[in-house]
Specification:
The complex is a heterodimer of chains A (244) and B (168). Chain A has 244 residues and is an alpha/beta fold. Chain A is built from 8 helices and 8 strands. Chain A has 2 domains: 28-90; 95-241, Glutaredoxin (3-Layer(aba) Sandwich). Chain B has one domain (3-165). Chain B is built from 8 helices and no strands. In chain B, helix 1 crosses helix 3, helix 3 (57-79) packs across helix 6 and helix 3 crosses helix 7 (132-139). Classes of the chains: A alpha/beta (244), B mainly alpha (168).
Chain lengths: 244, 168
Amino acid sequence: MDNNRNGDQWVEDRLATLRPDSEWQPDTCRGLAEFREKREKVRKRNRTWGWLAVGVVVASLPLMAFPPTRAFAQRCVSACVSQSSWVRDLFVGSSVPSVVYVKPDARRMAPDFVLDDASGKPVKLSDFRGKVVLLNFWATWCAPCGIEIPWFIEFQNTHQSLGFTMLGVSLDEDGWDAVRPYIDKRKINYRVMVGNDDVAQLYGAASLPTTFIIDKSGRIAATHVGLCSKAEYEADVKAVLNEQ
Amino acid sequence: MNSDQGLLDIETIFQAEYQKVARVIARVLRDPARAEELAVEVFLKWSRNPKAHGENSSAWLYRVAVRAGLDELRRETRRTRLGQLLPFVGHSATPEEVRASREDQERVRAVLAAIQPRQAELLILRSQGLSYDELASGLDLKPASIGTFLNRAEQTFRKEYIKRYGQQ
């Protein structure tokens, strides 16, 4: 490497004026003492923040025993998840949700089924022809499913008059023992059925949540696998509702 | 590596490099005491950044030291913009040679604070005696392009100096 380049002597002369006084010697001992002291201070401060964070977590845990605070925390998480895919990944993991919208001429018929709802009345999917149906496969133990439920409650409220209906199929192994209290607790305002392996296989619902949007002709218009955003659901539901 | 061993290594590097780092900063600043304070800050940053440890420690320390010095110089320049116009008020007792020398230093510092930080860093580290390889490693540049960068930096420095103070 050529380090003896003929540099600009005029510039070098000027930069040479910056040489510190030859009498000045940086005091390494004093510097080291200051370094140790400051390093210790930083360590103590980090330790304090660490303990503070632990304290906040420990103090919040008992609060989760109370339904109002737990519900509030759940609403906060739900709101964040609906707004941001980053937050969704943080709480639900980085598995990529898939959303598939099918053009009207390429759609296949949604497999028909009959299942009982919470009041024991049979619900037949094909009875909903003429309406747009959002069919959600879920379970009470599935955390992402719990995040979506408030959105579905809202869709049922806002879109019902436009020819939309929300249907939930729970795949809980404990059946109604687990599902009925959950419906009451979450104040679910749409019809929920307890499904079985046959129905799950018909729809290929291998993971939860899996949700289908069924058009007015009873064909599958969109499939959402995993926790998608509220905006994605809303966009697909509106698109299918607006179809002629 | 346990924490005691880690601390020992950090302090060994501190003792080996502290004077050089403080001198690099003192080139940029007019206050040696402040240069020493900033040198300690640079080592604190370095000790918290494991990626900067290893064989490139020296290059990292020099680069961050120059930046710290230039940042402080710019802050100082902003604080005392008026003082920059009359930098030697209060120094009338200083002998003429010393005064002239300090005047030169102030001009060079003002020019370094005005040009691009990257170019100022290169000029200061070069004037500190760092080789092309050390400069390339410290500033994340290709060794082959150091000569070109250095030429450009010198031209920029010269132009800025002459614009401010004329050819002297």
